[in-house]
Amino acid sequence: MQRVVFPNKVLPYLLVAPQLVLTFVFFFWPASQAIYQSMMREDPFGLRSTFVGLKNFSALFADPNYLHSFQITIFFSIATAVLSMAVALFLATAAEKVVRSKNLYRTLLIWPYAVAPAIAGILWLFMFSPAMGTLAYLLRNAGFDWDPLLKGDQAMALVVFAASWKQISYNFLFFVAGLQAIPKSLLEAAAIDGARGVKRFWSITFPLLAPTTFFLLVVNTVYAFFDTFGIIHAVTGGGPAKSTETLVYKVYNDGFVNLNLGSSAAQSVILMVIVIALTAFQFRFVEKRVHYS
Q1: What local confidence, expressed as pLDDT, does residue 86 receive?
Q2: Which of 11, 14, 241, 243 has the most C-beta neighbours closer than 10 Å?
Q3: Gap between the Cα atoms of 28 and 11, Å rounded
Q4: Once rounded to an integer, what is the mean pLDDT over residues 81-109?
């Protein structure tokens, strides 16, 4: 390995300085402020603060609404990650089999990722709105009692589909790149040995996609925890009856709507710790089962 020698000892620090400044300003400083505020109890107008230590945290874990948000978030994250990755993998393998206009199909499948989360939520809300939605009208004509504004399970299904649809394009892009990196000689050798169709996919293709799948698993987990706020806010607003109120949406409700700043800060700290711990767990244990070739 060739060692890089800089002519000036200060130059390496100048090169990494912009990234260090951005990391400090947009991560370490807000995180430190959240930790500080999580140990304080403030009035809604911010005129008086009282140090309460860990009482905000203990109150959260004694709150049934917060524990319910925990369960909602776990289900929502797993459902969104599994659905978006499964559909993206199916579309990527199907696009690889297209002979003509392959690049056109890939471009069309990537476009939805450019849609903002709030816009994606509004699109799905219009399609499945009980009052004006076209697909909701078809569901009712088919005898299905569809009303996500009143039924919590249907509201959860709607936000899962909307969040998954928003993320499919991102996953599709990486799965296509992973499929293109697989040596064609391996697939041809497997075909000669009699491995065809589904058997060849599960025995050859999917194991070689393990690094890509692992990376997307981490990214989709973080996406479901944080980046789905706009979708939930646009589609259900956490309702009905808090059936779609995830942890990140509860932070917004308690902090910006109910003005319980101490509890909201404590929730953001817990959410940050959960995501960091989950990511570390995936890299520590899940990566051992990933085979890089």
Answers
A1: 94
A2: 243
A3: 24
A4: 82
Instruction: Give the whole-angstrom CA distance, residue 234 versus residue 213.
Output: 29
Q: What distance in Å separates the CA atoms of residue 92 and residue 166, rounded to the nearest whole number?
A: 16
SS3 101: coil
Contacts of 288 (CB under 8 A, 6+ apart): none
Q: How big is the chain, counted in residues?
A: 293
Buried b (16+ CB within 10 A) or exposed e, 208-230: bbbbbbbebbbbbbebbbebbbb
DSSP 72: H
Query: Cα–chain-centroid distance for residue 57?
Result: 25
Each residue of 142-187: pLDDT tens digit? 888 888 888 889 999 999 999 999 999 999 989 988 888 888 777 7
**CB atoms closer than 10 angstroms to residue 117:** 20
Residue type, 262: G
Alpha helices in the chain (DSSP H): 11-23, 29-38, 55-61, 64-96, 102-110, 117-128, 134-141, 152-181, 184-192, 197-200, 206-208, 210-222, 229-235, 247-252, 261-284
